[in-house]
Amino acid sequence: MLRTAFEQAEVDYLYNEWYTEFGSFNRNQRVRIKGRDEKVTAMQAFLFKVRSAFGKKFPYRHPKTDPATLTPEQKKLQYDRQFWYSKGKHGLMEKLRHRFGYMKRCETREETQSNWGSTSTSANQSSRRGGTSHLEDDYMDEDDAEDEYAEEEGEDEEDYDVGESEERSEEESEGYGVEEEDAYSEVDDREATDLDDEEGGDATKSLDKGFHMAAAESTAEQDAFSTPDWQTGGFQVPYDLIRSEQSRGRWTIAKKERFPAAISEFNSPDEMDADEIVLWQEHIWVGQRRELPDHRSTPIVYAPKSLAYSNNLKTFSLPKTAPRSDGLPVFQANSPHYISINEQQRAQLEMLSNNKEDPCMALLELLNAYDVLRPYQFPVEKWPEISGKMPHIKSKIPYECSALDQLTSYPTLWLTTPFFDYLDPVHFYHGLSNTLAWCHTRNWRHAPTNTVAGGPYGIKWPIIILILIRHNYQRLARLSINETSPVPAGIRAEWTARDEDQFLAVINDIAATLNSCSVLVETYTERQIPNADPEAAIASAHDKYKVSVAQIKLVEPLDHDDPWHDIVLRTQAEVEVEEAAMDQLGAGGRRK
Question: Where are the compositionally biased (Acidic residues) regions (predicted)?
Answer without folding.
Answer: 138-201
